[in-house]
Model the fold of this input.
Amino acid sequence: MKSPRILLPLIALSCAAPAWAHPGTQLGNGLPAGLAHPFLGLDHLLAMLLVGVWASQQTGAWQRLAPPLAFVACMAAGGYLGAAGLALPHVEAGIAVSVLGLGLLTALAARLPLAASLALIGAFALCHGHAHGAEMPAVALWSYLPGFILSTALLHGLGYLGASRVTRPAWVRGAGLASALVGGGLLLG
Done:
């Protein structure tokens, strides 16, 4: 019966989405802002938790480890591109699709070929990273970037550990479905 105690904090955390979660945060533009940013937007928070949750559903060490590592690497690349001012089309829609897609993958406990998993995760991460990078001043790149990389890795780990400790897979799948619905709502706008 410990599973509900683990899920409740994750659900509560996912509901906290201050209106200032994207541009104009009051945390400055360095490491504190980078550390905080992934926790402050529902879209980022859910996607990053879901990467860990979905990874926990995979079989084999590499299939579990590769998606979070790929997400962090591609997100960092996207952050650099966003900070450099390179425009990517439909980034916000890509972020919403990532929440929808990762939620569905989790709800279905889908096991894709590793190459397909990494391509999908990479595309989602590029959008998230670009959004992070576009919101920071270029002068803060080397202090902000490590912050949001560390926070992202932490959220992946929390998602993985939380889902790994749940004794009923249906609860994890239900959380995935609920997240997919949130992603659909974000997409519709």
The two ends are 37 Å apart (CA to CA).
